[in-house]
Design brief:
Blueprint: H1 7-20, H2 26-55, H3 69-84
Subcellular location: Membrane
Membrane topology: Single-pass membrane protein
Keywords: Membrane, Protein transport, Translocation, Transmembrane, Transmembrane helix, Transport
Length: about 100
């Protein structure tokens, strides 16, 4: 997903956690961390759903990755171009020989 942890890193973090927190408090800390992650996911999901509702029709398939301005504008322009006419051919770009 977001982080690329291997087995060595996870074992190192577990040992570091046992040293810093202590083996008796570590399970409770892990439970609290899991609850925090679950709460963050539900908050993100509810915010995305609320955004979809407020934007209105046409945004039912909105994903958080689509909120990048470049992606958002490109998606909207592609939707308008598909509705109006077939896509025009892109002109071939030619390299100026003086620049080489």
């Amino acid at each position: 997903m977001f982080f690329d942890f291997g087995a060595g890193e996870l074992i190192g973090l577990a040992i570091l956690g046992m040293v810093l927190v202590g083996p008796d408090k570590l399970p409770g800390l892990a439970v609290q961390a899991a609850k925090l992650i679950k709460k963050a996911r539900t908050l993100a999901t509810s915010a995305t759903n609320e955004l979809k509702e407020n934007l209105g029709p046409g945004f039912e398939d909105l994903k958080p990755a689509d909120l990048n301005p470049k992606t958002f504008v490109k998606k909207q322009i592609d939707a308008v171009m598909d509705e109006s006419s077939p896509k025009p051919k892109r002109p071939e770009s030619k390299i100026d020989p003086d620049l080489l």
